[in-house]
């Protein structure tokens, strides 16, 4: 019988779905758009949220819900939902409580696509944003707040600059201003960092990365800690504390308590925007999470070994990996991720952008792909790919230099990866 007290490694395999006698041992795929009922009244009660059940997969599906429940258990939250991509997760997480005329504070060191989401698309929607350094002091962070600020956003470990967010500091300042902290926990995963334990209120993920782990599905997730008291600030979060006329006048905090935030995101935003993952993709995500604890340990061991090798290589100008004592974020990394950080290492090749290009073109084992956090080693030059829409100033704010190489260390034998890097570095200098 499943117990909430199980360790996280056991939860990777046992949480979310517990089959009853005679039921499938492996989570079934409910590959259906709709669900049949005997009466209109039963269906009506579902639409009115008076009873629990399934009627349309855009809102809920048994496979999707089981996988969301597993990830919620891993993060230590009270409720969660899956989305069709990590971008969709971040958008819904923010838009669920911020609308036209509102303001948010965000770390500048975030994934380029998320930076554009906040700096371009959400500004067009009337939501203002102030970017701050992830290394901001308390006073610098406080100065970014406005009367209409609704939330603070950051990444536990930023992609690709690998800045470590001081979660406790950001959470404390956010709470003193009466707003929640949302943290994208994609890189460490809950195996290495559980942001809720440090004051974070809502966690997002690109499940495309380590959670699924095999580069087969795109997906995202939002997990709510249930700790932020929305009713303490009823006017600021009226979207949760007053009746929603688009859904039968329900007041989410009154009707669903700690589940208010995720319920609203599901029945209002998912209803209208439809960014739901397919049950089959959720099934693949579940299979990936089964081995998450094993893979993350190997990713981290390999990455640290390769980061130390890169530090000693004469053809490398600099290395950034939070678990290296030379990293400016080393102490923060030990505080928030004592078991390890992630498998991503950033470094610069001597000779700048041209040498970086020769390096990547010379790799044999590592693949040049627009992806990260795969079981297989892969590499990318962010300034010319994932972050190419950003200006030089924006690149600087994100911590992305022109020579930065993002190496996503896989779970192959580390010696083979190092041999491949060694050969490519030699070629880069020709």
Tell me the radius of gyration: 22 Å
The amount of beta strand, in percent, is: 5-15%
Largest sheet, in brief, is:
7 strands, mixed
The average pLDDT value, as a whole number, equals 94
Low-pLDDT sequence parts: none
User: Strand arrangement, largest sheet?
Assistant: 1-7-6-5-4-2-3
How many DSSP-defined strands? 12
Number of helices: 17
**Measured distance between first and last alpha carbons:** 61 Å
Helix/strand class: alpha/beta
> Per the principal axes of the C-alpha atoms, what is the gross shape?
globular
Helix content: 25-40%
- Spell the H/E element sequence: HHHEHEHEHEHEHEEHHHHHEHEHEEHEH
Structure description:
The chain is of the alpha/beta class. 39% of the residues lie in helices and 13% in strands. The chain has helices at 8-14, 40-47, 62-75, 86-95, 112-124, 138-143, 167-176, 189-192, 238-241, 252-256, 260-273, 279-290, 292-312, 330-336, 352-362, 392-398, 414-428; strands at residues 79-83, 103-107, 128-132, 149-155, 181-184, 202-206, 220-224, 316-320, 344-349, 367-368, 378-380, 404-408. It has a seven-stranded mixed sheet with strand order 1-7-6-5-4-2-3, with helices on both faces. Helix 8 (189-192) links the parallel strand 5 and strand 6 (202-206). Helix 1 (8-14) packs antiparallel against helix 3 (62-75) and helix 3 runs parallel beside helix 12 (279-290). The longest helix is centred in the last third of the chain and has 21 residues, at 292-312. It is globular. The model has no long low-confidence stretch (mean pLDDT 94).
């Amino acid at each position: 019988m499943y117990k909430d007290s199980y360790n996280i490694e056991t939860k990777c395999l046992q949480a979310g779905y517990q089959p009853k006698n005679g039921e499938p041992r492996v989570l079934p795929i409910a590959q259906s758009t709709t669900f049949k009922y005997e009466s209109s009244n039963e269906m009506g009660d579902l639409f009115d949220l008076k009873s629990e059940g399934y009627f349309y997969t855009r809102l809920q599906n048994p496979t999707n819900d089981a996988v969301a429940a597993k990830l919620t258990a891993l993060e230590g939250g009270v409720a969660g939902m899956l989305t069709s991509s990590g971008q969709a997760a971040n958008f819904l997480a923010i838009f669920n409580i911020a609308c036209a005329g509102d303001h948010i504070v965000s770390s500048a060191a975030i994934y380029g696509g998320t930076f554009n989401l906040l700096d371009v698309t959400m500004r067009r929607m009337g939501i203002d944003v102030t970017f701050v350094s992830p290394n901001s002091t308390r006073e610098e962070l406080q100065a970014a707040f406005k009367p209409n600020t609704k939330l603070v956003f950051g990444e536990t470990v930023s992609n690709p600059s690998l800045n470590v967010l001081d979660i406790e500091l950001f959470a404390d300042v956010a709470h003193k201003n009466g707003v929640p902290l949302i943290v994208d926990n994609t890189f460490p995963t809950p195996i290495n960092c559980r942001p809720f334990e440090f004051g974070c209120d809502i966690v997002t993920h690109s499940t495309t990365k380590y959670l699924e782990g095999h580069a087969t599905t795109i997906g995202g997730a939002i997990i709510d800690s249930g700790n932020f008291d929305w009713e303490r600030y009823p006017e600021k979060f009226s979207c949760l504390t007053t009746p929603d006329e688009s859904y039968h006048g329900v007041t989410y905090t009154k009707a669903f308590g700690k589940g208010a935030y995720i319920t609203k995101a599901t029945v209002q935003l998912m209803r209208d925007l439809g960014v739901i993952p397919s049950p089959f993709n959720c099934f693949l995500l579940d299979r990936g999470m089964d081995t998450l604890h094993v893979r993350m340990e190997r990713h981290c061991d390999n990455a640290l070994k390769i980061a130390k090798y890169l530090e000693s290589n004469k053809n490398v100008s600099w290395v950034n990996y939070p678990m290296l004592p030379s990293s400016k974020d080393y102490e923060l990394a030990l505080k928030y991720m004592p078991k390890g950080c992630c498998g991503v290492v950033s470094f610069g090749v001597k000779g700048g952008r041209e040498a970086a290009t020769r390096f990547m073109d010379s790799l044999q084992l590592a693949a040049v792909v627009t992806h990260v956090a795969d079981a297989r080693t892969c590499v990318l030059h962010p300034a010319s790919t994932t972050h190419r829409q950003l200006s030089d100033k924006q690149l600087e704010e994100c911590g992305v230099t022109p020579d930065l190489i993002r190496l996503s260390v896989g779970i192959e034998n580390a010696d083979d990866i190092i041999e491949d890097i060694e050969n490519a570095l030699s070629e880069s200098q020709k």
